[in-house]
Specification:
The complex is a heterodimer of chains A (306) and B (444). Chain A is α/β, with parallel strands linked by helices and 306 residues long. Chain A folds into two domains: 220 residues, 3-Layer(aba) Sandwich (Rossmann fold); 61 residues. Chain A is 34% helix and 26% strand. Chain A is elongated. Chain B has 444 residues and is mainly α. Chain B has three domains: 238 residues, no CATH class; 107 residues, 3-Layer(aba) Sandwich (D-Maltodextrin-Binding Protein, domain 2), CATH 3.40.190; 49 residues, no CATH class. In chain B, 66% of the residues lie in helices and 6% in strands. Chain B has 18 helices and six strands. In chain B, the strands form two sheets. Chain B has a four-stranded mixed β-sheet, with helices on both faces. The longest helix of chain B has 31 residues. The two termini of chain B are 23 Å apart. The chains are: A alpha/beta (306), B mainly alpha (444). Chains A and B meet through helix 2 and helix 3 of A and helix 1 and helix 12 of B.
């Protein structure tokens, strides 16, 4: 569906995107995970033709993508990070405008608008100005405006920024439904929970470079550990930090110590030592690694730190 | 083209949905035209003139001169004559010089006229009076002085003639002047008939209506006397049939200034759309940058054309400007002026780095262009080099076009050079703007 080869974009001396390559299959839900400023939006703007790459190639359906070819752009849908709607117009008027720009008209346009408003649960507010909508409603119609023409590839640039959990879930359901219907989706985010829930494959990007690419399991498998031990931070555990550090790398968080066991360690050895030290087992919790661990492993920093 | 039309329709829909912008676009110019029109006396039959300026008068003289001038000033609409004030007991008493000076010094009144005891000029040549003022506004002061001169010269002429006679008597001696006056009276009576003594009395009193009806007004006699000395014949050879000439001369300048403000703010909306991320969305759709620019340009032209037309309709309703007798050409020049004005607005958006910068720069340029282009006052008031510079301003050419249509009733052929200049300005400015847009970051 989409193939990106050695894509590079520089702003002055800063490489916003540095020789990025990736390939998406039709119907895939692809996540682009990275902190703010990692290059996600730049990659989106190159794929949508808003900006031109300095070098590299984009293939859309095995055909070289030409930013000036507006017929090719009609195959895409783009949900920008900002709420790119005309506030002074109603939700329906906005949809009529963007649907019209993609060539929809007449009964088909009306039908698609009705479907979109229903999917976004905004039928009753269709004639209200967008400026009167809540943040979640604006985000939902921001997505609907990009899918009226049923694009083959939908690019969503952090579409849930500033949205409450309830609206976020509604957006997730909406996007999953579109993906189930066969739409290929590229979803950029700096929330690993979103990428974990939605995406069948994830690319991790930072400083313009694609650091890793694969399914969640593949990314986690690449980690040098398969579990972590979370140790409660209290008067019972804190005096024994030196003992814990013998079993692996110990990181301190606000409320716990996180032990990443050494590769050769067997967990039974650790718990035997804990029992010998007289520390209650309720202070320990074995966890599976997450994308956060992957990002930390790849970049040496957490997504939040970035 | 369909994309441009969709975007143009969107611009119109947004404009219509913004009730504030809609009312400001049409209502504010309408109100301002009404105010300016009245400031410049467009609506008044006598043309531009102030009314009701407070003028305090203290008459310390017994001479008829002071009484006559005071009475004339009271009839003059430009002045509200004050001759009394309330004393501490609340009684209306005649103004004194001391009180008048106090009032003017304190700023409660700006202009005062004092007829001193020797106002009639018994010993000295001519007439005497004192004009006191607190000139907070130089133009107003000059206007008042001019109006005072006009009123005095036209309403108390016999006093002026008496003053001249006294000056002559002082110069050649009272007896010689008496002898001269009597000889003159005898000669007039001998030549034109009448009683020599009556003619002598008329000359002495300054009522120079010799040869006319003895009951005729003094001013009429002097007028005819002066007019017989200096005869100025005035003939208006152009615009004679123009209704509401003052408004017709002025409305084009005001209209084009309002239009420039309106269209420059419309063009700076590009920055707001960029900030909202709308260009990213539009440019990811099958829309080119040129589509966006053209839709903006066409909307500006449409808005400008409708606004200019509305302004002239307002001029017709408020001041009776004749817009119908050459309506086709008026629409043509409105269209050309709108084209040039919207190009100016696009230029602002193309060269300014931000909305606020565009707004500030726009205000500066519009005020300069309006000033040198003749929107506020005739270009002939300005230095020669500024007059040459004004020809580079679209305001100058728009006003020229409006005057050609409304004042001179020109044909389309006669209007062509002005149209060509306005369209030329639009083409050049647009070409430059597009060049700038390509290099700028408005669409990034």
């Amino acid at each position: 569906m989409l193939e990106v080869k050695n894509l590079t974009k520089r702003y002055g001396s800063v490489a916003a995107l540095d020789s990025v390559s990736l390939s998406l299959a039709r119907g895939e839900f692809f996540g682009l995970l990275g902190p703010n400023g990692a290059g996600k939006t730049t990659l989106m703007s190159l794929v949508t033709g808003i900006r031109a790459a300095d070098s590299g190639e984009i293939l859309l359906g095995n055909v070289p993508f030409m930013p000036d070819d507006i017929a090719q752009r009609a195959q895409l849908g783009f949900v920008p990070q900002s709420i790119a709607l005309y506030d002074e117009l109603s939700g329906e008027e906005n949809l009529r405008l963007f649907g019209g720009l993609y060539g929809l008209r007449g009964a088909l346009l009306r039908e698609r608008i009705a479907e979109g408003l229903a999917a976004a649960q905004l039928e009753e507010r269709r004639h209200d100005k967008v400026e009167s909508y809540s943040g979640g409603m604006r985000r939902r119609i921001n997505i609907v405006a990009a899918i009226l023409h049923r694009p083959q590839l939908l690019l969503c640039d952090e579409p849930t920024v500033g949205v409450d959990p309830q609206s976020r879930n509604a957006i997730f359901d909406f996007l999953e439904k579109l993906n189930d219907e066969g739409m290929t989706i590229v979803y950029s985010t700096h929330y690993m929970e979103e990428a974990t829930r939605l995406c069948s494959r994830i690319g991790i990007i930072d400083h313009g470079k694609l650091l890793a690419l694969g399914t969640l399991d593949e990314l986690l498998t690449d980690l040098p550990f398969s579990e972590q031990i979370r140790i409660a931070r209290n008067d019972s555990t804190t005096p024994h930090l030196a003992a814990f550090e013998r079993f692996g790398k110990l990181n301190t968080t606000d409320d716990a110590y996180v032990l990443t066991p050494a590769p050769e360690l067997r967990l039974s050895e650790f718990f035997s030592e804990a029992e010998r030290l007289g520390i209650a087992s309720r202070f320990f919790n074995v966890t599976r690694p997450t994308l956060e661990n992957v990002f930390l492993h790849l970049t040496g920093k957490t997504l939040r730190d970035s | 083209m369909r994309t441009i039309l969709i975007l143009l329709g969107n611009e119109i829909r947004r404009f219509r949905s913004d009730k504030t912008a809609l009312s400001l676009t049409f209502l504010v110019p309408f109100v301002l035209i009404y105010i300016f029109g009245n400031v410049f006396g467009v609506g008044r039959p006598g043309g531009p003139a102030p009314t009701g300026i407070p003028l305090a008068v203290v008459n310390q003289s017994d001479s008829p001169f002071g009484t006559a001038v005071t009475a004339a000033l009271q009839k003059e609409a430009a002045f509200k004559v004050i001759t009394t004030h309330k004393d501490p007991a609340g009684q209306e008493v005649p103004l004194t010089e001391a009180r008048l000076r106090e009032m003017i010094g304190g700023g409660s009144i700006r202009f005062g006229l004092i007829f001193p005891p020797d106002a009639g000029g018994d010993q000295l040549a001519g007439l005497k009076l004192k004009f006191l003022n607190n000139p907070r506004n130089e133009i107003e002061t000059q206007t008042v002085v001019g109006l005072l001169q006009k009123t005095i010269y036209s309403s108390a002429p016999q006093a002026l003639v008496v003053g001249v006679q006294k000056a002559a008597a002082n110069f050649i001696g009272a007896e010689s002047f008496e002898s001269f006056s009597r000889s003159l009276a005898d000669a007039i009576a001998g030549s034109f008939g009448g009683d020599p003594q009556q003619v002598y009395e008329s000359i002495k009193s300054g009522q120079l209506n010799f040869g006319g009806s003895p009951t005729g007004a003094a001013s009429t006699g002097v007028d005819s006397f002066l007019q017989s000395l200096i005869k100025i014949e005035s003939e208006q050879v152009g615009g004679g049939k123009v209704k509401s000439p003052m408004a017709t001369r002025s409305v084009g300048g005001w209209a084009i200034m309002f239009l420039l403000f309106s269209l420059s703010s419309s063009a700076t909306s590009l920055f707001d759309e960029k900030k909202a991320g709308l260009f990213q969305r539009l440019l990811s759709a099958p829309v080119r940058r040129t589509h966006i620019l053209w839709s903006k340009y066409l909307f500006g032209m449409l808005l400008g054309f409708v606004q200019l037309t509305a302004l002239f309709v307002a001029g017709r309703l408020l001041f009776g400007i004749d817009i119908l007798s050459n309506f086709g050409n008026l629409l043509l020049i409105c269209f050309a002026a709108s084209t040039a004005c919207v190009a100016f607005g696009m230029l602002l958006a193309a060269i300014a780095p931000s909305s606020s910068a565009a707004s500030g720069l726009g205000t500066l340029l519009i005020l300069i262009m309006s000033a040198i282009g003749g929107a506020w006052f005739p270009t002939s008031f300005m230095p020669e080099f500024v007059q040459q510079l004004s020809r580079l301003s679209l305001v100058y050419w728009a006003i020229d076009g409006f005057l050609k249509v409304l004042w001179a009733n020109c044909t389309t052929l006669e209007l062509l050079p002005t149209l060509a200049v306005l369209f030329g300005i639009a083409a050049v400015v647009n070409t430059f703007s597009v060049w700038r847009f390509k290099r700028g970051n408005i669409f990034d």
